[in-house]
Amino acid sequence: MDKTREQLLDELLDKQAIYELIMAYANAADRHDHAKMRTLYHEDAIDDHGHFASGPAMDFIDKLPAIQANMDILHHNVTTVNLKLNGNYAEGEVYILAFHKVKDPGGSYDVLIGGRYFDKYEKRNGVWKFSHRAIVADWAYPAHPSAVRLDHPFLSGAYLGKPGPDDPSYRFFSLFTFGAR
């Protein structure tokens, strides 16, 4: 039997909610917004970030301040998003390009990672959140020393992004709040 228009609209709304969850994760990671990050996972969720942490997502988020302490720039770019729904459960394969500029005693270096998130989502009490997220690295492109130039003439006079609540987005927008979804 074909799906009704109402069923198709419900599925589209669920996919949009999951897509917004995925985007909120990228924002929370890049802004080092750990309070916001906590709102994206169910309390019993699992996160597998390889050697950084594997287990309860809240334990991973507890470790984020130390993990991110030496990262001057984090920039997660979501590209291809493949979602499959089954009622209040969904799975997603999410392609990302994640740029990292890392401070090091020997000088800063860059790592651009191409990878994917393998996600499981659950809709509980009407809200979609991560129930399990695992990172898969497909490739890495390192540069040592860092090739990032914030003093390049193209950036003259531009707002410069930074981690935390001092990012210019929080002064520019009135609807985006640090620590809120």
Automatic annotation (TrEMBL):
Short name of one Pfam family: SnoaL_4
Gene3D superfamilies: 3.10.450.50
Residue ranges of every copy of the SnoaL-like domain listed in the record: 11-133
InterPro entries cross-referenced by the UniProt entry: NTF2-like_dom_sf, SnoaL-like
Protein name listed in UniProt: SnoaL-like domain-containing protein
